[in-house]
Structure to design on (455 residues):
């Protein structure tokens, strides 16, 4: 059974991998520009001088738009990894991903140090079925090197008619050599919420925080209760947020509010007072929709932003056991500010904090029970080389100066998790983390019993 996908417009941009909390259309006024110029006259004079020198002396004739876009991109890129300029092509690419189906591979990608990096493959997509994983680097498309090239060019190359194929050359951290994967393009249907019932345990996978995710999860829980009623009802719920790169703050709050009945869910604090805000429980949904059921939330290194808000809220309120691997560690809020009909900037305007006041920036959410993905033969090496927020160039610094390496230090292997991927495959276990969560819920038939499993 699957949740529905609803069309969205460019203004919401909730499918963007960065957390978007505010959508504002703010025209750049002459007075505002004059105020900036009066304070930074020397810098603007230098910029204008360089612009003129390039126009007059560069070996080839240079387009004005190319120079201005480059200056804007460089300015925003110097701030942090999540502030960026979006013009017609990049806005159109996001709109295509949000507004409906398209033919392609089903990959969320970004440019990192000049390379095309996979943020995550969409679940059930041709790319996932072909074995492409989060954290992979795509170096060649059909044998052509794609390095320090426009991300839109790479995305355009990967899209195409359903049924056609493309050869990806992949560098995977943890492997010695790149390897090729041939993927057959398909029609990608964006499904933010999917669900199933396994061994009397309801499993809800939230793949992205787009519009109405909270309502879709509520509907999924109701449907799972109906399906399990004939066999004695549900024994528990698994909320799967693995490889979910984030999305709408409002939907993160809505999803948390399904299970939290009092107190704060998340707060955000910025340099500008208008960015300071507290989001509290009981503002969207009343009560706990699953108060009679124990809850496990699965996270991994690909769980970022909105996913971390939900995991942090449910962990701090002791409503769920968080299981899996440490999350990505993106604790910043981006506002989308429209410049005109064809361009906008995505600007970091605040940090967010869990109910206990913990900032996930750099450190992420640490699970109550660490469970490795033993069914993935490359998981251990990829985990050791996983790129998180703290590894990104120019990332915001956590105020308490976390040492990212110390977070992973002194972790002894858990004797419960020693089986090989081959042995698990022979038993029919293809997702060990989910399997372990379901088995845990089957053994713990109450929230009190599950609470005893926490650290």
């Amino acid at each position: 059974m699957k949740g529905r996908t609803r069309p969205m417009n460019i203004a919401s941009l909730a499918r963007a991998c960065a957390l978007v909390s505010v959508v504002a259309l703010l025209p750049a006024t002459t007075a505002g520009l004059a105020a900036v110029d009066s304070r930074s006259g020397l810098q603007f004079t230098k910029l204008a001088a360089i612009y003129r020198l390039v126009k007059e002396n560069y070996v080839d004739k240079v387009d004005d738009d190319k120079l201005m876009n480059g200056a804007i991109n460089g300015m925003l890129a110097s701030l942090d990894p999540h502030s960026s300029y979006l013009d017609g092509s990049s806005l159109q690419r996001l709109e295509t991903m949000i507004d409906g189906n398209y033919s392609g591979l089903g990959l969320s990608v970004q440019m990192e140090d000049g390379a095309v990096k996979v943020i995550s493959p969409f679940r059930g997509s041709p790319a996932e079925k072909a074995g492409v994983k989060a954290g992979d680097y795509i170096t060649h498309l059909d044998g052509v090197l794609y390095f320090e090239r426009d991300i839109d060019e790479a995305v355009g190359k990967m899209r195409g008619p359903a049924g056609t194929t493309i050869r990806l050359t992949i560098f995977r951290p943890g492997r010695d050599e790149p390897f090729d994967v041939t993927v057959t393009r398909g029609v990608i249907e964006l499904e933010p919420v999917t669900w199933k019932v396994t061994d009397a345990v309801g499993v809800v996978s939230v793949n992205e925080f787009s519009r109405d995710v909270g309502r879709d999860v509520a509907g999924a829980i109701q449907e799972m209760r109906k399906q399990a009623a004939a066999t004695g009802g549900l024994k528990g719920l698994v909320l799967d947020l693995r490889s979910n790169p984030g999305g709408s703050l409002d939907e993160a709050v809505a999803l948390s509010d399904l299970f939290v009945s009092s107190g704060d869910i998340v707060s955000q604090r910025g340099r500008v007072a208008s960015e300071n805000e507290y989001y509290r429980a009981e503002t969207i949904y009343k009560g706990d929709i699953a108060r009679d059921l124990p809850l496990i939330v699965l996270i991994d290194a690909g769980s970022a932003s909105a996913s971390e808000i939900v995991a942090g809220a449910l962990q701090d309120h002791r409503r769920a056991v968080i299981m899996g691997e440490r999350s990505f560690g993106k604790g910043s809020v981006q506002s989308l500010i429209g410049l005109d009909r064809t361009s906008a900037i995505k600007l970091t305007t605040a940090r967010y904090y869990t109910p206990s006041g913990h900032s996930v920036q750099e450190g992420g959410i640490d699970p109550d029970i660490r469970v490795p993905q033993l069914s993935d033969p490359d998981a251990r090496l990829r985990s050791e080389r996983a790129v998180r927020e703290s590894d990104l160039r120019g990332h915001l610094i956590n105020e308490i100066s976390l040492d990212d390496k110390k977070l992973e230090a002194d972790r002894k292997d858990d004797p419960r998790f020693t089986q090989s991927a081959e042995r698990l495959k022979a038993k029919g276990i293809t997702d060990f983390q989910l399997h372990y969560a379901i088995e845990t819920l089957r053994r713990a038939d109450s929230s009190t019993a599950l609470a005893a499993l926490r650290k």
Notes: The radius of gyration is 23 Å. The chain has 14 helices and 20 strands. The first strand starts at residue 20 and ends at 25. The chain has two domains: 101-188, 193-331+349-451.
